[in-house]
Amino acid sequence: CLVRYLNRPIKPDSWMVERKNDILWRMRLVYFIMAMIGLSIIGRVVYIQFVEGDHWKEQARTATMRYQSIDAERGDIYADDGRLLATSLPVYEIRMDLSTNVTSDEVFYNGVDGLSAGLSSIFGDRSAARYRSELVNARRKQERYYLVKRNVSWEQLARIRQLPLFRLGRNRGGLIVVEHSRRVMPYQTLAARTIGYEREGVYVSLEGAYREQLEGVQGKRLVQRISGGSWMPVNDQDEIRPQNGKDLITTINVRIQDISEKALLNQLQKFRADFGTVVVMEVSTGRVKA
Question: What is the pLDDT of residue 193?
Answer without folding.
Answer: 92
